[in-house]
Every structure is written in C-alpha cells, then in structure tokens.
Amino acid sequence: MTDWIDIGTLSDIPPRGSRTVNLPGADPIAVFRTHDDRIFALVNRCPHKHGPLSEGIVHGHAVACPLHNWRISLETGEALGDDRGCTPTVAVRMTGDRVEIAVPMKVAA
Amino acid sequence: MDFHDFGPDMSAGALSVGAPGAARQHLVVIGNGMAGCRAVEELLARDGTRHRVTIFGAEPHVNYNRIMLSPVLAGEKTFDEIVINGHDWYSDNNIELIAGDPVVAIDRAAKTVTARSGRSVSYDKLVIATGSDPFVIPVPGHDLPGVIGFRDMKDVDAMLAAAAAGGDAVVIGGGLLGLEAAHGLSLRGMKVTVLHLMPTLMERQLDESAAWLLKSALEARGQTVLCGADTAAIVGDGKVEAVRLKDGREIPASLVVMAVGIRPSVALARAAGLAVGRGIQVDDHMVTSDADVLAVGECVEHDGQVYGLVAPLWDMCRSLADGLLARENPYRAAATSTKLKVAGLDVFSAGNFSGGDGCEDIVLRDAARGVYKRVVLKDDRVVGAVLYGDTGDGGWYFDLIRKGESVADLRDVLIYGQAFASGGGQADPKAAVAALSDDAEICGCNGVSKGKVLACIAGGAHSLDAVRGGCKASASCGSCTNIVENLLALALGDEVQAGAKTMCKCTSYGHDDVRRAIVEQGMASIPEVMQTLHWSTPDGCSSCRPALNYYLLCALPGNYVDDQQSRFVNERMHANIQKDGTYSVVPRMWGGLTNPRELRAIADVVEKYNAPMVKVTGGQRLDIFGIKKEDLPAVWADLNAAGMVSGHAYGKSLRTVKTCVGSEWCRFGTQDSTGLGVKIERMTWGSWMPHKFKIAVSGCPRNCAEATIKDFGVVCVDSGYELHVGGNGGIKVRATDLLCKVATEEEAIEHCAAFIQLYREEARYLERTAPWIERVGVEYLRAQIADDADHRAELAKRFHHSQSFSQEDPWAARAAGAESELHQPLLAAAE
Ligand code: SRM
Ligand SMILES: Cc1cc2nc3c(=O)[nH]c(=O)nc-3n(C[C@H](O)[C@H](O)[C@H](O)COP(=O)(O)OP(=O)(O)OC[C@H]3O[C@@H](n4cnc5c(N)ncnc54)[C@H](O)[C@@H]3O)c2cc1C
Ligand code: SF4
Ligand code: FES
Question: Which pLDDT does position B81 carry in this prediction?
C-alpha cells in the first residue's frame, strides 16, 4: 500500500523549476515541473556527491545538478550521458489541480 | 595493367621483406608533408595489401597540417592539435617513417635513394613530394640571422622566440602567407610592418576595393602596411636590425619574415635527371619522365601549371593512387578558391575576378557593416567572386563558378546571396545548405562535395570529428565547419553531437551566430530564439539557456524579462552553493574598505545564524559560510540594515574591485587608488557579463593590488593612469595587455565603462576577457576603445544605460519578501 500525500497545486511549482518537500522520517524530496507541465519527483540527492537536485536547471525531462552538472533523468532517476548513478524516483499523480506524491511506507523496524 | 608488378614471379630483386605470399612492392615517399602522406592515405584506402611504405621527411615531425601553422603562430592552436597523422598511424599501417633525415640523392638506375645520414633504401616505386621552398629575395643581408621564411614548424618556433623577446618585425610580402604571419606576430605582441611591392594587398586574390578594406582593417589593428614598398637591403651587424627600402626609408626590425612567394622544390629531381620545368613534370597520373618515379604536390608542374594551395593537391593524390593501382582517373586542374585565415577578417575569392572583355560586374557595398561583394559574370555565367566582410556565400558562388551554368534567372538577386536568390529571404543556414546540390563543394581544402559528406554521415559519422576523420571535410583550415555542422544537423536532426563550435547539442549554431541573429532579428525571448533558430530540444539545456538569457539581457537592457529558471542556482539564490547544499554570503565592501558598523553586522550575522566559518577572501572582503537557504533572506536583511549590499560573489558579473592604499597613505602612492577603485566599483557593480569580471587599482607600479592579472586593471603613475586589460589569475595565468595610458581619472573611468561594454556585447558566454582578447587581439580593442573617442563614448553610454536598470540590490527585494517560496519547502506549515 502506498499513501498519497497532497503537497499543493501545480502553480506552487514554477515551470522548469522545482520545490522541495520534507516529510518527517523520509529523505528530502524534490518535485519538478517541466516545460510541458509534467510533474516528477526524486529524492533530492544527486547520485554523484549528494548535490541538491532541486536547485538545478530543469530542461526537457532532466535536471542538471547544481554542484557538478551531472544530468539526471526525471523519469528514471538515472544519470544521463557518460555518468553512472541513480537517484530513487518518487511516484507522483495529479488529482485535478492538486499534486500528490506517494511516499513508500516505511518498513516497521 | 602492369601485371608483372605484383605477380608471383618477382623479378625486381630489391624487395627486402617477403612475408609468405605477400610479394609487396616497396613504395618510398620523399617528403612527409601534406601531399606525400595524403597520397599514401589514398593508396591505403584503396588497397592496403600491395605496398610496403617508407616515408622520408626532412622535418623531425610526424605529418602535420601545414595550413594550420598560421593558427599555431597566432596562439589559437597547439602543434599537437594540427597533427594529421600521429605515430600510431604509421605503426598501424606498417609505414616506416624516417624523420629528420632528408634524402640527398636518387639513383634511378639502381632504384635507390640515399639520405643525409648515409642510409640507403631501394624502391620499386618512388614518390617525390618535396613541396616548395620559400623564395628569398637576394638583396644584401638576406642571409643575416633573424631573416626567415614561413613554411614549417621550425619557422614558427623562430617567430615565437623572436616575439618572446619583443620588438619590431617586418614581413616582406602582403599575400596570404605574409598577412597571416603579420597577424600572428602582432597577436604575439610585436609591432609589425608589412612591406608589399604591389600597390594593393593580396593582388592575386583580391580586387582593389576589397584590398583597400583589408588594409584599413589591418591598420586599425595596429599593423603598419606599406604598399609599393621595394626592399633594397636588409641591414644589421651580425643580426638583422632594419630593412631599407629603395626610396631610402629604413624600418627597424629584429625579425624579418620573407613571404614573397614559393618555388617548387626540384633540386633532387633535377639532379636525378628527371624532366623539370618550373616544377617536376608529371602526366595525368603524376608519373614523371621515369615510369617508376612519381611526383605529387607543390613540387610538380602539370600541364604547365604549378600550385600553391592544397585543394588541387588532394585531387592529384587521388589520381596518383588510382594510377598506381592501374585505374584510370586523370587529374584535371580546376578553379580554386582562397580564404584568409585571420580571425575576424573574412576574405574570400575564387575564379577570375579581374574582369576583362565581355565581363560584367555586380557589386554590393554595405559600408556600415563593412561588407563588400563583387561577382563577375561572363555570358551570364559566374566566373569569379570577391567577398569581404561577409563570406557566407563563398561556397555557393564557388559552386556556380565550377558548374558554369547560366544564372540569367538569378541575376537580379545574385549578389544578395543564396538564401535570397533561392527565394527564402531569410538567413537560415540550414535551408541554404539543404538547397545546395549534391556535387557542391563543401570543403575546398580537401575537395569534398556535399554528397560525399552526406555519404560519410550516412556511413555512421555522427559528429564533427567523425566527419573530419571520415571524409576530411573541414579537417584542414576549418572554415567550412559551420556548413558541415549544418549538414550533420540536416542529416541527423537531434542525434547530432555538438562540434567544438556549436553552442551546445541543442543547436547547430555557434555563439556568435546566435548572438548576431538575436540582435539583427530583434528577438526578445528564449522561446523565440529557440523557435526561430530551430532548436532541437524543447527547452534547451543547462548550457544554452544561461547563455541565451545573458545575450537577450545584454541586447535589451531594461526591456528583457530575466528568466530565473535559466540561471545557475547561485545567481537565482544570490549566494554561492556549497558542497553540503548550504550557501556562502559575501557582502560588497567597496574597494575593499570597511568600517566598524559593517564589521559588527557581519560578526552579528555569524553568531546569530551559527555560521561555522567566516573568512577573508582573495578579493578583499569577508565570506560567511554555511548559511541555510531558508535563512538567506533574514541574513540579507541584517546586512542591508548595516548599509551593505550583495557582493555578487556568485555571478557572471562584476566581482570585486581590489585596491591598494594609494597616495593618501602610502609613501610611494602616486594617485588615489583607493578612491578611484571605490568610484569604479560604484559604477560597475550589478552589471551582468559573459563571465565574472574582476578589477583592481594599484597606486604605483609596485602594483600591490595585482592589477595586471585582472580583467581590467589600473596602475597609477606620476603622469596618470595605465589601463590594463585581459588579465587572469585563475586556471591559466595571463598577464594583462596595456590598453593605453590616460591622464585623468575621468578618462580612466570612461575607458573602463567602454571596455566592459565591448566585452559584454562581443565576448561569448563563459568566455573571460583573457581568452576573448587572445581571440580578437588587443589591437582591435585599442582601435575600438583607445583610438576612437566617439566609439568609446558610445560604448560607455550604452554601459551606463544598461547599468541604470541593473544597480538594484537583489538582496533587498528578497529580504522584503519577494520570491520567498524559493527559500521555503512545500508543506512548510505541516512540519
Ligand atoms: C571565496 C573565494 C576564495 C577565498 O576564500 O578567498 C573564491 C571562491 C570560489 N571561487 Fe574563486 N574565489 C575567490 C577569489 C578568486 C580569485 C582571486 C581574486 O579574485 O583576486 C581568483 C583568481 C583571479 C581570477 O579570477 O582571475 C579565483 C579564481 C577562480 C576560478 C578560475 C577562474 C578562471 O578564469 O580561471 C574559478 C572557477 C570558475 O570561475 O569557473 C573560481 C570559483 C570559485 C568558486 C565560485 C567555486 C564554485 O564554483 O563554487 C568558489 C566559491 C566559494 C564560495 O562559495 O564562496 N575561482 N577566485 C574568493 C572570493 C573573492 C571575492 O571576494 O569575491
Ligand atoms: C603558413 C602556411 C599557411 C597556408 N595556408 C593555406 C591555406 O589556407 N589554404 C591552402 O590551400 N594552402 C595553404 N598553404 C599551402 C599548403 O600548406 C601547401 O599547398 C601544402 O602544404 C603543399 O603540400 P606538399 O606536400 O606539396 O608540401 P609540404 O606540405 O611542404 O611537404 C613537403 C615536405 O617534404 C619535405 N622535404 C623536402 N625535401 C625533402 C627531402 N629531400 N627529403 C625528405 N623530405 C623532404 C619538407 O620538409 C616537407 O615536410 C599554406 C602554407 C603555409 C606555409
Ligand atoms: S581554489 Fe577556489 S574553487 Fe578551488 S577549492 Fe579554493 S575556493 Fe574552491
Ligand atoms: S553532486 Fe551532483 S553532479 Fe556532483
């Protein structure tokens, strides 16, 4: 089971930009809005040296990490081009104008 | 075909290797230059199994691109970058290279050649490719040390050594070679005089009007050009000191470059008894008067003609290779075209432009743009073209010349170029390239047609480098790179891999093209640019978007709406991101001055926000580290309250103005360097630039503010202010060039504003002043800024206009709450 969490409306996220979501007990999440108004979410941590992807330049369905310019696919979380690495993706859905993300339930310790 | 040549029954006992079954012929090549090695390449491409190859080279190098010696001299390329075939090529193809050991004799009867070292090698087939020797005018003093030609790497090394010592250079000869030498030497800091015997420069390639434009442009770059100058003697005691003209004038020189012409290098062939006229006489397959001896390149004479450009040599190499394999492919001389390889000066000529009976001229002059075009027609066919300033249509005219078809229908629009003539009216290079016929020649240097480039791309060459490697297009002088890139874009669409010159993989245009199009077509937004110029991605990438944002901002001060999403995070956050995702904050300290109030405010911020570190920067101010994104607005509010504003330590913009103590306190100070630095910083802060920009003002030549490694540096002296430009202390240290010296503070300030504006308008995004100046030449800047008071005033005015919109503290707006969401996560309330 996944829990869908309402994080706000489409217009809360700037086009070709992103916002962060900090949920207690979860990794910080970056939510991106692309040029074609698609929404994607990734764990806000670059596979390279943990740069905050939310602060990168969003282009196409990718984001350029602000620290060393790796390009990360928003669709898969994979590093593009010659770089190797992957950031976990977070499921997103739109309900009307609302953006919801699915935070995988934490396995009970 | 000569069956016995490679039949199993080898009669020529000279063969020394005999791998089983491989009765290979020994092909010996004299000359490891452009034609010699290309001939071998052509042969290997056809059939690599029949010959064992040995190449003798007089020069101690592998095969390099002689054409590119000019860019090496000018500092645009290194030797390694102009190597055509490196050592691996020789070893991969089992070619024995004997470099640095010239052949001194050919014994045709014994079929051997002997080198200077005494080494003797026998051949089955011999190819002579000894090129040309620079012609030396036999005036008194021509053999003094310091008098050289311009032919090989050794000459370039000699010129670089002379330039390092500084002083005056004289170049004798105002043709292609001479002007390229002069350009390089002047970029290397020498004061250069060009002596040309004829009344106009490059008279073999240019008509009078174009030659005159060229001469003025060279003079504007600080060269002295004397036409009708007849050299009488080179004078000097043990080494060259001056050149004396027949009219008595004497021009001082520590270096004299003779570039008056070349002579085919035929001594070896003549001594061997081969038929020699002006060059070594060859037939249509490059065979000399001895059936086993061939000759190719500039050393040959074919059908009464000798050569001085590479394009015809490539055709010769093809005929030679086919001939060696007994295939019919006779060499035929064709029209040639030339371009001058001097950065920023576009000169093209082709065919016959001297006119004459029955010829008509169509001329276009656009003085404001510095463009001159002349197309020569005969019986409704294009027979020649001269282009100055805008050479984009050179290939098209050249194609028309070679085709020789009637252009009666195009006549009215011919001079406006291909895009117009083909009805588009729009300057779209991709459409222009698409419209070219398949046999249109793209690369003049290597004789590669559009069809061949496309075939090469279709065969898997999907990048500029791959095309260069595959069919050689744009691999020599590089001036057709744009066309090749457009062909790649045309053939591959999105797949095209960016070549060195395109802005990024989203476009086939280079920075300069895009920028020109933005200004000329009055584009006003990033999407508009991408639409008009056919971007291959929906919204660009992290390379092109910041560049476009800057170009638009610079073109439309006050009117362009900045696109925050096209800025790097530091410029969006007005602080420097750190490896842990926190930020550092650097408030401006005008000219490095501070006071107790500011120091207290900084100290308070450090404590209040638990900043783990505060440090004095290399730019004379204080940097507060470890601030969280959420806290930035509050930090700025506190600093603002103490009167401090953003220091733009994060921006492609003015950084710091470093000063020293100056005349107010220092016992050596000659002027108020601190005061001038503060004034300059007040004038320049907040401006956006192609890259970061640093200034310093030192109060005397001891130069404690290190002004000579800054983008703009002032060194005060008793009589005024020395203005220095283009310094860089970063990855590659570069000391400044002296722009000029001025008497007053006001002039120093005006020069500074004008220099910055020229840099803002003309440099490419992410190009600091140092590489920019290396590219355009300090002479150009002097002409634009120091020597032309009106132009300087215009530039300064444009700078002040643009500053009137940019001197707002970005921190103040944020501190007041603007874009506060940028600093806050979503669901902040829920936390
Ligand atoms: C803070 C400072 C070091 C210090 O503690 O002293 C510094 C810090 C950084 N420098 Fe620097 N440079 C600092 C003075 C310099 C200087 C000295 C100077 O300005 O007099 C130089 C050499 C002079 C020059 O630029 O010609 C310098 C040459 C560079 C370079 C190489 C630039 C080049 O053209 O080769 C880079 C890399 C770049 O810009 O791409 C760089 C980049 C950086 C960056 C921005 C690295 C980055 O991208 O994150 C560092 C930011 C740290 C931060 O968050 O503040 N920094 N950097 C100095 C800030 C000066 C200021 O008050 O604004
Ligand atoms: C600075 C410069 C710029 C130029 N720019 C252009 C341009 O923009 N466009 C253009 O079309 N052309 C240009 N050219 C001309 C072009 O370089 C020549 O046409 C081309 O190099 C000729 O090729 P080649 O093989 O005949 O001679 P080379 O390339 O000169 O090769 C001959 C080689 O043979 C060697 N050699 C000579 N004698 C012996 C011997 N006895 N034993 C062993 N080796 C020997 C020489 O050392 C040399 O390395 C330029 C030339 C120069 C010098
Ligand atoms: S030299 Fe500059 S860029 Fe390098 S670590 Fe130091 S501050 Fe950072
Ligand atoms: S941390 Fe993202 S590229 Fe290095």
Answer: 87
Cβ count near B286 (within 10 Å) = 29
From the CA of B580, the nearest ligand is: 4
Pocket test for ligand 4, best of A67, A73, A80 (most atoms within 8 A of CB): A67
Would you say B147 and B240 are in contact if contact means Cβ atoms under 8 Å apart?
yes
What is the whole-number distance in angstroms between the Cα of residue A63 and the centre of ligand 4?
11
CA pair distance B698, B715, nearest whole angstrom: 5
**What is the phi-psi region of residue B236: left when phi exceeds 0, alpha when psi lies from -120 to 50, beta otherwise?**
left
Domain of residue A29, residue span: 4-102
Task: Please report the residues numbered 572 through 631 in chain B whose beta carbons come closer than 8 angstroms to any beta carbon of chain A.
Answer: 572-573, 577, 579, 581
Instruction: Tell me the two tokens of residue B656.
Output: 């710091």
Q: Do both B669 and B759 map to the same domain?
A: yes
Interface of A with B (CB under 8 A): 7-8, 12-17, 19-24, 28, 31, 34-36, 49-52, 55-60, 64, 66-67, 69, 71
For chain B, the C-alpha Rg in angstroms (whole number) is: 31
Indicate whether B250 and B271 sit together in one domain.
Answer: no
Question: For chain B, what is the domain count?
Answer: 7
Q: Is the pLDDT of residue B732 over 90?
A: no
B815 within some domain: no
Both tokens assigned to B156: 């370039």
pTM beyond 0.80: the answer is no
A–B interface: beta-carbon pairs under 8 A: 76
Residue B831: pLDDT over 70 = no
Domain that holds residue B470: 448-495
CA B419 to centroid of chain Cα atoms = 26
Distance from the alpha carbon of residue B164 to the mean position of ligand 3, in angstroms: 32
Structure token pair of residue B68: 């590119």
B605 plus B630 within the same structural domain: yes
Among B19-33, B362-376, B487-501, which stretch is predicted with the lowest mean pLDDT?
B487-501
CA-nearest residue to B569 within chain A is A55
The verdict on B155 and B296 lying in the same domain is no
- Supply the ipTM of this predicted assembly: 0.70
- Phi first, then psi: what are they for A77, rounded to 5°? 80, 0
Whether residue B201 is predicted with pLDDT greater than 70 in this model: the reply is yes
Which tens digits make up the pLDDT trace of B406-464? 888 888 778 888 777 765 444 566 777 777 778 777 777 777 888 889 988 888 777 78
Contact B477 CB / ligand 2 (< 6 Å): yes
Question: Which listed ligand is nearest to A53 at the C-alpha?
Answer: 4
Amino acid at B75: G
CA angle B589, B595, B597 (to 5 degrees): 105
Helix (H) or strand (E) run with residue B626 in it: strand B622-627
* Structural contact between residues B803 and B795, judged by C-beta atoms closer than 8 angstroms: no
Flag whether pLDDT at B497 surpasses 90: no
Which chain A residues are within 8 Å of B537, Cβ to Cβ?
Answer: 59-60
CA distance B657 to B736: 16
The domain spanning residue A41 has which CATH number? 2.102.10.10
Is A107 part of any domain?
no
Name the domain count of chain A.
Answer: 1
Cβ neighbours, 10 Å, residue B804: 10
* Residues B664 and B795 placed together within one structural domain of the fold: yes
CA B540 to chain centre: 26
Q: How much is the pLDDT for A104?
A: 63
Q: What is the CATH number of the domain that holds B602?
A: 3.90.480.10
d(CA B195, CA B261): 13
Residue B616, strand partner residues: B622
Gyration radius from chain A CA atoms: 13
Q: Is A70 in the pocket of ligand 4 (CB under 6 A)?
A: yes
Identify whether residues B669 and B794 lie together within a single domain: yes
CB B222 within 8 A of CB B738: no
Task: Tell me whether residues B541 and A60 touch, CB distance under 8 A.
Answer: yes
- Give the mean pLDDT of B397-405: 88
